[in-house]
Amino acid sequence: MPKxxxxxxxxxxxxxxxxxxxxAMRAALLGGVEGIVADCGGEASCATCHxxxxxxxxxxxxxxxxxxxxxxxxxxxERKPNSRLSCQITVRxxxxxxxxxxxxxx
Length: 106
Ligand code: FES
What we know:
By secondary structure, the chain is α+β, with helices and mostly antiparallel strands. It contains 3 helices and 5 strands; from the N terminus they run ββαβααββ. The protein has helices spanning 24-30, 58-61, 66-71; strands at 3-7, 13-17, 50-53, 83-85, 98-101. A 5-stranded mixed sheet has the order 2-1-5-3-4. A hairpin with a 5-residue loop joins strand 1 (3-7) and strand 2. The mean pLDDT is 97. The site of FE2/S2 (inorganic) cluster has 15 residues, from loops.
């Protein structure tokens, strides 16, 4: 099962198992990662699952879709070029070891 590494704004690191086909957001919630709120449950309509993809992983993770891109305009912390909504990152084998940095607030 792929693993995803979440790095909190304060520096705390948590590695969680992530089921293939599920989302990085779901893996964070199941793994007890603090700092992912996910108010909308993964519908790309709340922007409270905002993450910054580690720069070594941005190509493999890919670009946000159009709806996600719109919602990234509503994040609590300012959007960066590597911002994604973690509910829209689908877990797959090639993302094993993915590092996602959490913003200061959601
Ligand atoms: S959980 Fe709401 S946008 Fe991702």
